[in-house]
User: Fold this.
Amino acid sequence: MRVLGNWSLGCAAARPARGAIGVLGTLGTLGTLGTLGTLLLLILFSGGDGGGGAVAWASGYHPPFDRAVQEAPWILHHRVVSEHAPRVDLTDLPMGLDVQLASHHQKFIVLDQELAFVGGMNFNVSDWDSSDHRVFDQRRMEFDASQSDREDVIAKTERPDIIPRKDYMMLIVGPAVQDVAEVFHMRWSHNISEGVEYAEHATDFVVARDQAPQPDGLQIQITTTLPEPFWEHSIAETWFNAVAQAQEYIFVEDQYWRLPMVVDAIIERMQQVPTLRLLVVTLPVNETTDPGCAWTHTTHQQLLAAFPNRYATFQLRAFDYVIADRLAWNERETEARYDGISVHSKMLIVDDKFMSVGSCNKNNRGLVFEGEMNVAILDPVWVRQQRRRIFANILPATAAATDDVVTWWTQFQQAADYNDIVYDNWDQEGFDIDLGDDTNPDPLPLSWRPEGFVHTLQFRTLSDCLIEDIGPDIF
Assistant:
């Protein structure tokens, strides 16, 4: 039996044929999720008022799946709109709206209660990327892209459909797998009892408790945020506990950077420990359209004012270049191709001892009322290895692996400073330069190449956000 809980299902899928389901996209390396006679149970988050409109809303992201979702007995749509579910008041917004914002945001798969994947990746084609994060990667194309389209990307004459993406999934074996299955079972059983859509086709199942601890396993905990009627907040508990014990550093890599309730705890801890540092890798925000701009800017300015030398934020950019022939002028130009890497990660590491990774973003809603799942790991050797691996992926290849916080902090700053200079040089030239030598097989000097992905990221003040008056728990 395979169970899957996900916020969005946007990869190519088909109705079960003789009991098998082939899933391509985010986890394409898994090949076929189901085999002949395999049972697959699936919970998708839906919205709306519960009729056919709810199905249309949920399946609007994945048209190939629409017909299957209307008839499939192995799917339950769980809407956070029952009488038990929290609703969010948006009256602080200029529009004076009162709309549902809560969702089940968990992303996990359990295979035969023996193997589990937990992390931040949706079942969407847009969530896949390699760790190289190449600007031109023909594998980051829509599922129905033609061979010709993919060859154009390989030749660097066209960009892929999807920009580079950064995220994490944890592969779990051992007793914790059945803890993941238990979360699914809680939601599945509750949905049946509530009579949600397709519940009449669903049956209960039993979560086995027969997995022995791994001989050299890690100390891990499956943590969640669950809305009513479960009202579980173990992700928040582990984060607060980790921050309260931080001594050397707190590392955040996340899609969002706006969680006032934890930032207050971080500030308190940094005041207690004068050497504690906070390094954040995140995304820029759009000051005009992003309703989370206000709390992102407020968070940043608050930390920057208090700890100007112990707090730093960075963004990630991928780079490549193409040689363009200008026949009219009988010359060749070298053109830069930059892509901001879509950081979809939800990563927290403290002191090379503690890691939390999963679906929970660095915003209050993920800790309070969203349906989330993370894996918390307490293991100094393993966490240090993974932190080194993460840094090696985004820092220049010349940056030596180190466990000294001051040293790697300096590596980040130096890498960002250098890459900012390279980016500004390209910007001043309109992102194309004439090197004047059409016989040079590699005409781009090293001084025009960024090293690694790290670039500086600064957020301006609250007054620069179009939407300022918004509650801290919403976005």
User: Anything to note?
Assistant: The two ends are 36 Å apart (CA to CA).
